[in-house]
Amino acid sequence: MRDKDVFDSNGKLREEIILKMLDEALAALTGKKQPLDAWMTLIAPDDIVGIKTNVWQYIPPPPGGAGPEKACDGCGVKESQIGIDDRGVLKNPIFLKATALINARPMRTHHWSGVGSLIKNYIMFVPDPSNYHGDTCADLATIWNKPIVKGKTRLNVLVMLTPQFYGVGPHSFNPKYVWKYNGLLVGLDPVAVDSTGLRIIEAKRREFFGEDRPLSPPAKHILLADTRHHLGTANPENIELIKLGYSENILI
Questions:
Q1: pLDDT beyond 60 at 66
Q2: Is the pTM of this model over 0.90?
Q3: Cα separations (Å) of 241 from 3, 105, 236?
Q4: Residue pLDDT, tens place only, 153-179
């Protein structure tokens, strides 16, 4: 889902457009005509909802984790039963009691895992994140079987508004390698969404550098989440991709 008007003339995100994008994406994903009906296929009024976001300072997420907080409120979930967190999830009572999770974070290249995206976003649900950095984070998908998250994820939102497509070293950031893609990737399968986001990042790298420039390290944890851990589908041939909104320079 893309919208060329998601940024105003000053480069500031327009929250009402983000909410509209998310609503339209959810309607397409669920087959419902009305946004509220679409959300209510995923979230019930009695759910305790944790919105897992990402607080990396250089590409912060939109307010409310790209809109889910307001959507959950619209579904009748009490404000006291909705939480947004990243690094504090293991101490956050909402996340410790959560019946539903929404996984929402910006897409970027990453020093340890090739890309930081939805599968990796759950690394803060374990007390020892560094133990999952081995072999270029090959087994990140095992975290999704931990009791605190297993079977709870209702929606995955990979925020592709201003992705980062290149970086060198830990926490590397250079505005030269960030561009306005103006998009959200929304899906029920985190592996399929990550695989699609990865293809866009790879296409942007080819466009920018004029040649194939493989990620270093490779983002092999996405493929292994499918072939080794059976979390979801990584093969593009088996992913149904619905393209909505702004299509210029879509790269996929």
A1: no
A2: yes
A3: 17, 19, 9
A4: 999 999 999 999 999 888 889 999 999
Question: Contact, 74 vs 127, CB < 8 A?
Answer: no
**178, 162 contact by CB (below 8 A):** yes
pLDDT, tens digit, for every residue of 27-62?
999 999 998 899 999 999 999 999 999 988 888 777
Q: How far apart are CA 162 and CA 78, in angstroms?
A: 31
CB 245 within 8 A of CB 24: yes
Cα–Cα distance measured from residue 248 to residue 252, given in angstroms and rounded to the nearest whole number: 11
Domain spans, the chain: 15-238
pLDDT score for 65: 52
Tell me what percent of the chain is helix, strand and coil, each rounded to the nearest 5. 40, 15, 45
Q: At how many degrees (to 10) do helices 220-227 and 190-209 cross?
A: 150
Taking residue 67's Cβ as centre, other Cβ atoms within 10 Å add up to: 26
Q: If DSSP codes are grouped into helix, strand and coil, which group holds residue 157?
A: strand
Output b/e per residue, 178-193; b: 16+ Cβ within 10 A. Answer: beebbbbbbbebbbbb
Helices (H), 59-189: 63-66, 68-74, 93-97, 134-137
Task: Give the span between the Cα atoms of 136 and 31, in whole angstroms.
Answer: 37
Contacts 24+ apart (CB under 8 A), 124-130: 124/52, 124/86, 124/87, 124/89, 124/90, 125/52, 125/89, 125/90, 125/149, 127/90
Is 136 in contact with 223 (CB distance < 8 Å)?
Answer: no
